[in-house]
Amino acid sequence: MSVVRDGEGDQATMHVQSGVAAPKKAKAARTPDPTRFSPTDLGAWGFLLPFLAAYALFMLYPVGQALVMGFFDWDFLDITRRQWAGWDNYRRMFWGTEMTWSVDHLVVLRVIGLALLIPLARSWRKGSLPRASIATLAIMLVAIFGVILGIHPGEGGRWFDSQFWLSFGNTLLFVAMSTPAIVGTGLALALALNRPSRLTGLLRAMFFAPYVLSVAVMTLIWAFMLNPSLGLVGLVGDWFGATPINLLNSSTWAMSAIVLATLWWTVGFNLVLFLAGLQDIDVQQYEAASLDGANAWQKFRHVTVPGLRRTIRLVVVLQVIYSFQIFGQVFIMTRGGPDGATRVLIQHIFERGFRDFELGYASAMSVFLFIVIILVSVVQFMFLGGEEDEA
Amino acid sequence: MRDRRLFRITGLLLALALVAAACGGDDDTPAPADDDGSDAVADGEDIEITLARFFGDCDETTEGVTDVSEATTECEVIQILTNAFNEEDNGVTVERLGGAVWDQYYTQLSTTFAGGNPPHVAVMHSHRLPDFAGRSLLRPLDDDLAGADIDFADFTEPAQQGAMFEGDIFAVPFDIHGSLWHVNVDLFEQAGLVDDAGDPIMPTSVDELLEQAETIEAETGALYFSQDWFEFAVGARLFLGLVAQQGGDIVDADGNATVNTPEGQEALRVLNELATTASDPSQGYTDSESAFVAGDVAVLHNGTWVVDQYNRQADFNYAALQVPILYDQSGFWGDAHMWVLPDASNEDAVERDASLAFVAFLYENIGSWAAGTGHLANRTSVLTGGELDDAPQRANYADAADTAVFVPAVEGWAGAWDSLADELQATWISDKDPQSALADAEERMNENLGTVTD
Amino acid sequence: MSSTTTTEVPRSDPAADLRARRVHLLRKHVPTGLLLLLAFIWLIPVWWMFSLSLTPNELLQLNTQILLPPQVTLDNFVSVIQVGLSGRWFLNSLIVASSTTLLTLIVSAMAGYAFARLKFPGKKILFPVVIAGLMVPQEVMFIPLFLIFEQFGLHNTHPGLFLPRVGIPLGVFIMTTFFAAIPREIEEAAEVDGASKWRIFRQIMLPMAGPALTALAIFTFVLTWNDYLWPLVSATEREMFTITTGLASLQGNFAQATELGALMARGVLASVPLLVMFVIFQRQLIRGISLGSGGK
CA nearest B203: which of B273, B264, B156, B250? Predict the structure, then answer.
């Protein structure tokens, strides 16, 4: 009899079960009262301390400083030019002159966003997701797409920082385009290569290989390759008798080219994580499913996906976090062009902070990005299997 | 079983590495590089000063070399000069700092300033000077130059301007580099556009320019013009030059951007004409260069740093010429490499004198730098003294050192230049309307320059 | 599967058998064949890089659209290896990446175990706070970090290069996820036997988290090796460059137009050690079919 492998606190999952009673009883007998100060707690701190020490010193402190700097007009190089600025940086980021609200500003985007309320309503009725989560998400959707996106400078007005919302929009676009692509490809590759043979070992190495290249080398290769007069794209064009355009030079296609290059470069990361996750799925569950007459797709849906749920959540959350922070390869390949089509928020932050020396303003923008990522991650945790990873 | 052993062995190796790191790693007093040839840290013998520069690294061809006539690249010239200085018995050793690729140089340099520990001597572009001088990070050199035998008046006018900020001298200029028109004389000849001496005829107006483009294309089939249209801000440089030729300015006396002017609109019109009728605006730096060297293009708008390279590579009759004057006066983009002394590291008189001694040595070798790299010498005495007579092509553009147009010396210029380049590029890449592009450029530039009112 | 109840022996049909075998072989090998084809296409850019690295720079200034070097030269590689300090840079990278990986594995595994299995007050808040550390871009954080290290005189040292990365919560996130997936029964059995948390950690949790540890080791090593921004500002003396900053320092202006072959050669040299490392360790990622439930 195979054992249910995902830990306690799970929502009902749809996988082939063949024996469940034992774990729950054991848990009830074992769990000590968490509020009692038991020896386990002391040991826990021992395990945590090394990491927490490094984290506090090398992460919390700099992040804290960045948070504080966001309230200052903080010149990177000149101490005499640092002064308290209160909310000025944030005002400069978000606001403009002659601000007004209208229904039709960015209307297409807003309609699409509000349309997401429909599937939410359906899942409310079906009860397939916790209602608290649905309510929270619905409120967020209405706030963002209904209200916030309608704000814009009116007649004769302008944004204080014209590049801020543009670059934030580009970052969002990148996240939306790259996440399903890179997660999906990583999963597909992991499923295909999850066998211990020499050949699959070679294949794993081949698909992972781009990940070991540094950003400088990777961008050099792709910038050249996509250039019709310098790279292989030109050769392929010759075979077909046409001259292809330089994707990186087209405001319509540059972002897609960047997503493609990023996928090629980083899918190895997801591939490795999914492989690791696949190892924890009990093989006997597949056999049991076969006995029950399941085909490949059903086995995937009812054994693999539930078994991988934690890993999927890990991969998606990490992918989103990294995609929000994309910078290096875009900066080198297109420098934000053409015509700002690929300027992402981190590039804007970097330029304001290090080219223009306005570290306070750059910090404020980073805080904004930080909050956005937290919100998105919270939503992800709500919807990708709500249980937390602790005991 | 094997897995476990593998882990153990790996663990052991890593642990050894960790121990090696803790014990063996160099701390704050490394030995100087081998090619210095003199003693290490200040022990009364040699004073060690640190130098930050880009230009790359070329130890494998310059190790031990001190004769600058053997240099063929920027890196080799500066490294050999450094070697030569260290060889001299002058009591100073120069240690090079920094591992930046040239486009990360300022990130690294700024960080050293932020940490309070900048190098003794650093190279800096003139368009970056205001940002550092304006923050009082550089030592004013007005009183030091005479004592170091540096004659500031010997520098050409643009060079002097580029080294000054708000009336004080903050740098010792090393060169002027700027736009040049690299010409394939054979193609001009084929199109009948050469004079009796066999020199290519340069256009003297925009109409002539466009006519030449037509002629060349008709007679030779080659495109007339190429430049990097999107990678680096080359289009913006031509814009600057054309505005200057009409007597205009891109920033006014109050520091406001003035690109949406009749001169600016005209300059942008010329650029777009070139893009649509005489050039291939999908070309970047590398491919525009390849096209020229391969003989497919009549004129390449690039800079002074590639003169020797094209001279070597071109299998056609090659000439490096000044940007033609299409309006009332000469005008083309120029910039300068200069040597600055960060204040924080030059407070001690002994170290300061050492830094000045090195910079003075470089000043004396400006001719060698120009000869070895193709950049313009910026000292009148060098330009007229015959030092550069043997260097190819220099005579064609030597007086450019007196007429180069630098970007405005205002703080925040780096961002403004990026904004301008962005908007200009939008007109020939995304077909943005030139009028609104210039208007938007002004708005963004003012944002960058801090002159926008809330 | 189905038991035959008839007494008839199925008559052998060689033609049908052959067809069946062929279909079986196709089904078995075509997917792998397709994957192999896909993998080769996938690596074309890498092949191109390798090809360019073997081509003389002068030829590349005229044409870069080649799949095979028109003329093979080792000069690009030799010129890198000849740089006196390149061996030292390589060693620096090796020391820093190895130290970071070892420390990260230990520290993250311990913290991951605590978050996944141990009880302590404030866990529900601490975990998100820890993960939030992933959400701040390095470009913003490195200045305050730079100033701290400046104060402690840690620039241009090895610890200065590997210490900051140990605080990155990626490892904790990964290890917590994978530790939480290990079935409790095994732990509980050990507890009943009187094992301490530390022994359970060492002798049960760690071995079972092999693939996760391997994954984390690979990521940490690669990410540390390729780190550019931090070594750029922290290790400014040439002897302390890592291979990344060291090779970058060799680059003159517009290097991609004048020395493309050399650039590619540097890329190859910097990447090959990582690939070798991956090939050696990726076997640890796959447990193998024979190890099913309870067999770990």
Answer: B273
Mutation target to probe the C interface, by most C beta carbons within 10 A, among A279, A373, A377 is A279
Residue of chain A with shortest Cα separation from C269:
A213
CATH topology of domain B179-333+412-449: D-Maltodextrin-Binding Protein; domain 2 (3.40.190)
The string of DSSP codes covering A299-336 is: HIIIIIHHHTHHHHHHHHHHHHHHHHT--HHHHHHHTT
> Which residue among A81, A161, A230 sits closest to B286, beta carbon to beta carbon?
A230
Nearest-CB residue to C42 (from A40, A206, A353): A206
H helix or E strand, kind and range, residue A153: strand A151-153
Pair of tokens at residue A64 = 């804290």
Q: Give the CA count within 13 Å in the CB-facing half-sphere of A379.
A: 15
Distances (CA, A) of A189 to A204, A327, B107: 8, 26, 39
Share of chain B above pLDDT 90, in %: 52
* Res C58: pLDDT: 83
End-to-end CA, chain A: 24
Residue B225 has phi, psi (to 5 degrees) of: -130, 140
Of C120, C173, C275, the CB nearest to A212: C275
- Quote the ipTM score: 0.85
Preceding peptide of A196 cis, ω within 30° = no
CA distance B202 to B183: 10
- The reported pLDDT for the residue numbered A41 is 61
Q: What share of chain A is helix, strand, coil (3-state, %, to 5)?
A: 70, 5, 30
| pLDDT at C2 (0 to 100) | 45
Say how far apart CA B444 and CA B423 lie, in whole Å: 9
**Lowest mean per-residue pLDDT among A345-349, B171-175, C256-260:** C256-260
Phi, psi of B319 (to 5 degrees): -135, 135
Neighbours of C, requiring at least 3 CB pairs below 8 Å, are A, B
Provide the residue ranges of all domains of chain B, joining segments of one domain with +: 45-176+336-403, 179-333+412-449
Distance of CA C106 to the CA centre of its chain: 17
Residues 6+ away with beta carbon under 8 Å from B261: B243, B248
Task: State the Cα–Cα distance between residues B88 and B46, nearest whole angstrom.
Answer: 11
Report which DSSP code applies to B348. S
Give the C-alpha separation, C110 to C205, whole Å. Answer: 10
**Mean pLDDT within B228-251:** 91
- Which domains are delineated in chain C? 14-75 (no CATH), 82-285 (1.10.3720.10)
Contact criterion met (CB below 8 Å) for B159 and B169: no
Taking the C-alpha atoms of residue C89 and residue C123, their distance in angstroms, rounded to an integer, is: 42
Say if pTM beats, i.e. exceeds, 0.90: no
Tell me the pLDDT tens digit for each residue of A207-239: 999 999 999 899 989 998 898 888 888 888 888
- CA–CA min distance A146, chain C (Å): 27
Helix (H) / strand (E) element for B224: namely strand B223-227
Question: Which residues in chain B have their CB less than 8 angstroms from residue C296's CB?
Answer: none
The verdict on a CB contact (< 8 Å) between B114 and A336 is no
Tokens of C229: 């921004």
Tokens of B80: 């050999």
Question: What are the pLDDT digits (tens) for A34-77?
Answer: 554 454 566 788 899 999 999 999 989 888 888 899 999 998 88
Verify cis geometry, omega within 30 degrees of 0, for the bond prior to A39. no
Rounded to whole angstroms, the Cα distance separating A351 from A84 reads 22
- Of C113, C181, C219, Cβ closest to residue A47: C113
Q: CATH assignment of B45-176+336-403, given 3.30.200.20, 3.40.50.10320, 3.40.190.10, 3.90.226.10? A: 3.40.190.10
Residue of C nearest to A70 (CA): C140
Can you tell me the distance from the alpha carbon of A294 to that of A290, in angstroms, rounded to the nearest whole number? Answer: 5
